[in-house]
Structure formats: structure tokens, C-alpha cells
Amino acid sequence: MYIVTAEEMYELDRHAIEQGGMSGQLLMENAGRSIAERIIQSECKTNSIAILVGSGNNGGDGFVIARYLMQAGFSIHVFQVVPNEKINGDALFHKQLFLLQNGVCSFMESPEEFIKELEPFDVIVDAMLGIGVKGKVRSPMKEIIASINQWSKKVIALDIPSGLPADEQTALDISVKATKTYVVEAPKQSLFTEWGAPYYGEWEVVSIGIPSISYQSNSYVKKWTKEDIASTLPRRDRFAHKGTHGKGLLIGGHKMPGSVVLATKAALRSGAGLITVATEKDTIPIIASHCIEAMYEQWNHFIINRNDVQRFDAIAMGMGVGKEPFSKDIMNNLLEQKEIPIIVDADGLTHLKPLLPIREERIAPVILTPHFGEIAMLSGKTISEWKRSPFFLAKQYAMTNNVYIVLKGKFTIITCPDGTQYVSDTGNAGLAKGGSGDVLAGIMLSMIMQNQSITEAICNACYIHGKSAELLVESGQHTEYDLLASDVIDGLSQVFRTIF
């Protein structure tokens, strides 16, 4: 599933028309019909529906929906929020079809009387502005949107709630807050931001028949799905041995031994063959008592014997490592090992900051797993700036510093050094607990040692981590309140069963 900006969606439409042989009228018909079919199913107990249409494709889709709903027996009234001269092209064609079938359409002249006009209706369908919002919303549309948001009944948005920017390039002014949104063809970027997602309500993507060849550009952000992980996660060879599945090194636990326990158990539970934990001498018995399957070393061993890390296939550092200077010495040593992938998490990010950007001669990747506070620390920008433009800033930062960025949150954004981006949206509020990030780091360490690309490994790790939390809550074993990071580790077996 691809995630697009407004300009990218326009380009998809253009390609479908100019290269795919589809007319704008047909694309509009497909969109309206597909959404109408879903409304007919979901609103079967509803009698009257008001459809608010503006100019452009969004309004044209609204007229198609109105026609199909009217044919299905609903009481339909279209309220046009723009003058007649604003309705033209393909939208005018579908308006005329609606009127020829005795459809009722009136021009909404007074925003002050808006609520009174809508009072008799059970549902509003918002087909007013679409993805073309630029800057502030002007009157009378601003007042109309404010009135809709005071309405207590169901609001269904077409493609995107009116007033909401499709992507990060435009700041949010005012937007319809929809109960449900039927997204046309591809989710828009704002759906995967903290500032935009709440306005969509529940959402569902509706295909309108744009040819797959139109998506050939590699510039689109991709949402990582169950189909993606099922096709990329390697099956186990029956002749495999423990070395086949990777020898991983976890460095940390100085301040918080529990963080390394979680990462270690997660790595082993998600398929790692061998895990060695490097920590301080006094911490080893504590960690070993909770995870007997791992091996243990004092971490000063890897300062004295600098090249001994070469026996590992991948390394994760940072979970509970603390901010003491000797931890920085370990980080320096790790970066000198040019052929070993490194995951840097938690306190490790602090030690890494002065060492960025990663030297181009380094062959193996460096993967950073920050939350918004940590990426703000690394970049010098504020948390609010990152939340406003996570896609743009992550792409800029990853390419500048030659690193992979796993920006953790409700929508985890994975960005590669070449600027390619993916989104994993599995998970729930139960993951908003201490230790969840340590579990993710452990799963990721395991995944990058399996027979898959680094990008696939990172995306699969994020998907698996979130999916475990989802399944544990959906099955009734836990709720979002009581779910612990250790529970997520225990739930990994359910995830793998669903994948395979």
C-alpha cells in the first residue's frame, strides 16, 4: 500500500488518464460507486443523508455517490457549497446525471442557517474540498466546517476531511473531524501524522482502478503490511543450525539491567541463533538469572580486545548503557568495525551524536531507533518541528548522516539512507510503557541477521513488534492498560503463527 502527497496523487490521476487510457469521468464514477457501495452496507438502517459538495474532483465524486445512494432508496439531498459556475468539467457531467434522475440539489447560501438545514438528516457526507487545500481555509467554508464539527451525528468524509492538508507542505488551519473517511486509491501523508490522523476517524482505502504501472516510481512512501512480511520473512531451513540464524551482540545494562533482559529475550524469541550480552561484571548475574539462553561478557573485554566484535553478525547498543565516557569508547570501536550492522538505541544515541555523519567508507549500515525526544536531541530541532514534518525531516536527516532512521511512534516511519521511506502502523496504546523500545531493538537485532535485506528486516521487526501488542489485546489476554513489554515478547509466537 502506497502513501502519497497531494502532488503525487495528482500525478497518479494524470498517468492513469494519459498513459492508462482512463477518462476522468470514469475515475470519478469508480470512486463514487465504490464508496456508495460501502455506505449502502454500513448505513443500511439510515434513512436520510445530506451530501455536501464543492468544486473539483471531490465534489464530482459526491454527485456520483448521491446518484447511487438515491437509486438504493436513501433519501438524498445534495447541498452545493460553491456557486454553479464553479462546477465544471467531469464534476459538471456527474451533476447533470444526478439531476436527470430527479436528484435534489440546492445551493447553501448562508452558513448561519447551515445547522438548521442539516437537522433532519441522519448522516453528512463531506465531499467539499478534497486534497487541494493550500494555506488557510477562507469564508464561508471556514464557517461551514466549524458548523459541521458542532454536529452530533455521523460525518463521512470522502478521500480526506475538508480543510485537512494532504501532506506536510501545508499547515493545518481548520478541518472537518470525520467519523469515518473513505480514502480514494491511496492514503495521504497526513493520515500518518499525529496532527492529521485524528481528523480521519476510522478509515478505509477504496480502489478506483488506477493501473499498477502508474506506481512504478520509487518515490512513494510504502505502508508495510501483512502481505509484505509474509513475502519477505524467510522460512527456516530444516538443515539450519544456531549459527545459521545469526550471532548477535547486545551491549548495555549498566544503569538498567532490565532493559537488556528485555532486548535479549526479544532477540532470542524472534529467531536469533546466538546472543551474547556485554555488560559490567556486577550486572551479569542479574541479567543471566532472567535469561539463561544467552551468553555473557564484561564489556571492557571489547574495549581491550577491539577486534573481537568481528565474530558477531550484528550488534545492538544503548539499552541501559548509561552516559558515562567509557560507553563512548565502545561506540567509537563499533563504528570502526566497517562490515558489521549496528543498531543504536536509547543512551547509545547520545554517544553517537558527535560521531555523525557516518563515514562513507563504512560498508555495513547504522540503524538509529529514536523516539521524538531523542531525534530532537540528535538533530537540534524541536519535538514539535519533528511531529509537524516527520517524513520530510526524517528523510533529510537519514540522507545527510548516511543512516537508517526508525522514528518510533503511533506511526513508525522507517527511512533509508537513500531517502526511501516506509510506515509501520501496527501496535496500540499498550506499547506506551517503559521497555517497549528495548523489545523492538531486540527483535530488530534478530531480524537483520536473517536472510533478508536490511530494509525488509527493519520493517518486519516494526510490524512484528506492534502486531504482538495488537493480538494480545484483541485475544483478550491483555488490555492496553495492563500490557507490559515482557508480555509483548511472550506474544511473539502468536505473531509468527499468523504470518506462516
UniProtKB/TrEMBL annotation:
Membrane-spanning intervals of the chain: none
CDD domains for the chain: YXKO-related
YjeF N-terminal domain sequence ranges: 9-216
Gene3D superfamilies associated with the record: 3.40.1190.20, YjeF N-terminal domain
Record note on cofactor: Binds 1 potassium ion per subunit.
InterPro entries noted in UniProt: Carbohydrate_kinase_pred_CS (IPR017953), CARKD (IPR000631), Nnr (IPR030677), Ribokinase-like (IPR029056), YjeF_N_dom (IPR004443), YjeF_N_dom_sf (IPR036652)
UniProtKB keywords: ATP-binding, Isomerase, Lyase, Metal-binding, Multifunctional enzyme, NAD, NADP, Nucleotide-binding, Potassium
Annotated binding of K(+), by residue: N58, D126, S162
Family matches, as PROSITE patterns: YJEF_C_2 (PS01050), YJEF_C_3 (PS51383), YJEF_N (PS51385)
Cofactor: Mg(2+); K(+)
Keyword Ligase annotated: no
Residue ranges constituting the YjeF C-terminal domain according to the UniProt record: 225-499
Binding residues annotated for AMP, in chain numbering: K408, G409, K410, F411, T412, G437
Subunit structure: Homotetramer.
PANTHER family: ATP-DEPENDENT (S)-NAD(P)H-HYDRATE DEHYDRATASE, ATP-DEPENDENT (S)-NAD(P)H-HYDRATE DEHYDRATASE FAMILY MEMBER
HAMAP family noted in UniProt: NADHX_dehydratase, NADHX_epimerase
Family under the similarity heading: In the N-terminal section; belongs to the NnrE/AIBP family. In the C-terminal section; belongs to the NnrD/CARKD family.
General function of this protein: Catalyzes the epimerization of the S- and R-forms of NAD(P)HX, a damaged form of NAD(P)H that is a result of enzymatic or heat-dependent hydration. This is a prerequisite for the S-specific NAD(P)H-hydrate dehydratase to allow the repair of both epimers of NAD(P)HX. Bifunctional enzyme that catalyzes the epimerization of the S- and R-forms of NAD(P)HX and the dehydration of the S-form of NAD(P)HX at the expense of ADP, which is converted to AMP. This allows the repair of both epimers of NAD(P)HX, a damaged form of NAD(P)H that is a result of enzymatic or heat-dependent hydration.
Stated name of the protein: Bifunctional NAD(P)H-hydrate repair enzyme
Organism: Gracilibacillus marinus
